[in-house]
Design goal:
The chain is mainly beta. The protein contains 1 helix and 23 strands.
């Protein structure tokens, strides 16, 4: 989602960030039940973000505007104009295209949106490439360099025997708006925390200005919990001058922060170095907070 410039000294950086991981804002409730959880976040403007909800029935809310810079926070539903998705799990602003976003459903359908006021209009939609058997997509991010784009997305994985699969590919847009993906690469990722049968190794992805890949991971024991989650520095992405995508995952990733009692499903880097985290705590609703994870 941001311009990756260089490889960071990952081990030193992770240690420094882990030491300050809990110096963050408090959780603030933004939804009261399972229909109001936060499945994905995209920074929109100072103090606001767009939120996708994983609702599945026709007519239920798909998209909202979150004013996280206010006290209390406010959530305003947006009208979804176009083909209605099922189970939206991620959303990302398209760099260099104000008001335009890509939202992704769990089965790998990408919706290109134009948000204007209280309405989001579907411009085009298309499947992600190379979706594997049983994939459940929960994370999506974009990187950009000199007008070129690449996309990262992930099957969430499930428990100790199924790691997440992190996919990456160059991305372009057809004249009529359709996202078009290039050659796909794959990497397996196992979260260091949480662990156990209910672990979703990647519940969302964001990318810092320097190209660090941050992932959310979560455990889900059912609609009433208990939940647990973490945000981890997973590695580095570089978009080359020729349009290629290089992913280097950290051999021994260390959580930047852990969050007992919450299921983090949204991680979004904000201008200035903070991350905005969102949870889908099912029957317990949704929550957001900031954390200092996206600095250089």
């Amino acid at each position: 989602m941001k311009l990756p410039l260089r490889f960071a000294a990952a081990g030193v950086l992770v240690a420094l960030l882990a030491g300050s991981a809990q110096a963050a804002g408090p959780w603030r409730q933004v939804g009261a039940d399972a229909r109001g959880g936060v499945s994905g976040l995209a920074h929109e403007a100072a103090g606001t973000a767009l939120v996708v909800h994983d609702n599945k029935r026709s007519g239920q809310r798909r998209l909202s505007r979150l004013a996280y810079g206010t006290d209390p926070v406010t959530v305003t539903p947006l009208v979804w104009d176009g083909a209605e998705p099922v189970d939206l799990e991620a959303i990302e602003a398209i760099p260099g295209m104000p008001g335009e976003y890509l939202a992704v459903a769990a089965r790998g359908i990408v919706y290109r949106l134009k948000a204007d006021g209280t309405t989001a209009t579907v411009v085009e939609y298309t499947p992600l490439p190379a979706i594997g058997p049983g994939d459940d997509v929960e994370g999506f991010a974009l990187v950009a360099r000199d007008g070129r784009y690449a996309a990262l997305w992930a099957d969430r994985g499930e428990g100790p025997d199924r790691p997440a699969t992190l996919y990456s590919a160059p991305l372009a847009f057809a004249a009529w708006g359709e996202p078009r993906f290039g050659a796909v690469t794959r990497r397996a990722f196992t979260a260091p925390h949480p662990a156990g049968a209910g672990t979703r190794h990647i519940s969302d992805i964001t990318v810092t200005d320097s190209g660090r890949i941050l992932v959310g991971s979560a455990s889900d024991a059912g609609d009433d919990g208990p939940f647990g989650s973490a945000v981890t520095d997973a590695g580095q992405v570089v978009l080359t001058s020729t349009g290629g995508v290089r992913i280097a995952l950290t051999a021994r990733p260390v959580p930047l922060g852990t969050f007992p009692g919450h299921k983090v499903e949204a991680v979004e880097c904000l201008p200035g170095g903070d991350a905005l985290l969102g949870t889908d705590d099912e029957n317990l609703g949704g929550h957001v907070r900031t954390a200092p994870y996206c600095g250089a």
